[in-house]
Amino acid sequence: MKAVVVLLALPLAASGARDAGPARRETLRDPAVVASRDGVLDLTLTAARATVSVAGQSVGAAVYNGSYVPPTLRVRPGDVLRLRLVNALDEATNLHTHGLTVSPLGNSDNVFLHVEPGGAQEYEIRIPSGHPAGLYWYHPHPHGHSDDEVRNGMAGALIVEGLLDSFPELRAVTERVLLLKDAQIGGGHIVHRGIGDDVVRTVNGTLNPTITLRPGETELWRIANVGADLYYLLTLDGHRFYEVARDGYRLARLVPKRQLLIEPGAREEVLVQAAGPGTYALRTAAFNTGPQGNQYSGAVLATMRVAGAAVAPIALPERLLPVPDLRGAVTGRRTIVFSETADGDTLFIDGRTFDPGRTDTRVTLGAVEEWTIRNESDELHDFHIHQTHFQVTEVNGVRQPFVGYQDIVNVPVRGAVKVIIPFTDPVIVGRFVYHCHLLAHEDKGMMATIEVMP
Q: Which CATH superfamily is domain 1-319 in?
């Protein structure tokens, strides 16, 4: 299940608050919501060019339903998503429900479907009754256009309800959705420059919005990196994080962290417990993806304003619910290699660029495989697999403590990670993909196909 991050205040007095700069007057607003009714969520998504508001500017972009921040879809386990995708763009598109453990066949979460300009596609995605509750997202996945379409803003949140239902003390906390989107703007339009060059970072399309809490108040923040290529390294002044879930998968226990690395496509769900009165900046640090990669600056993403009458902090549970450790269940092993040309124009998995007509990996249903993912390039990549999740066991040979599952992991420069992937849910039988979720890298070839056979 997606990791929920709990942010607990450090024991600072009001004087411990740091100046986040002048807070903007605009208050953080959650995206609009479309929720399922009677077990069905029925929605039309139209992909088209429109003039939208991005960081307070009117900008021409390719978006869903005329909005830079499309609606958050809220469903429950056992529901059906019926989505009609209308393509009013001048290029092919399609739709992917990132992180859901659902069928990759037919008109379900099938990235091999393409909707040509002027066309439409009916999707019917059945969510299993036992599906993990947490934060997921939806975005286009047409090879060759994924990067450009997500850069433009074609990305929205998808929430499977029930993450905190087992914890009565947490059920009533206020919830916020924070979608991290970065844009490059030129001549009144979204433009395509080098990764991280002249980029504007927004939360829900807004530049440095204000989030107001009372001292001691607890909130659930669902944070998703729904941009195409940038990493976010988050800190919150005067506070630390306690992870509850990552990538839609609730952890077995809370994990305290001073910072959160949120790779492209990754999600963190967090409880925030406010410190004393003052202003605190939610920041992302400057980041360097390696000698062959990109270097870009940090930014203040939002300002948390703590004011008003104090409330007693909620006592947070030390442990969550049990999560099975997969290390004793491995049935096979394989190695996957990420590499690229010296100029970075072509990228490979196992020495080959993506071919949708070729099946690169075959797995039999019921297998639990340990994959070693090696990065033989001089820049960072992040590994993502569709339809299922995995447990990270090693990073550069260092054994990782077990806390839960995820669906994205960073692969260090000239390094390696080991993950255990369960191919055990019958719903995932079929053909899908795994790839680097820096979408510029995926579009340049760093994607492969896998078939789970019955």
A: Cupredoxins -  blue copper proteins (2.60.40.420)
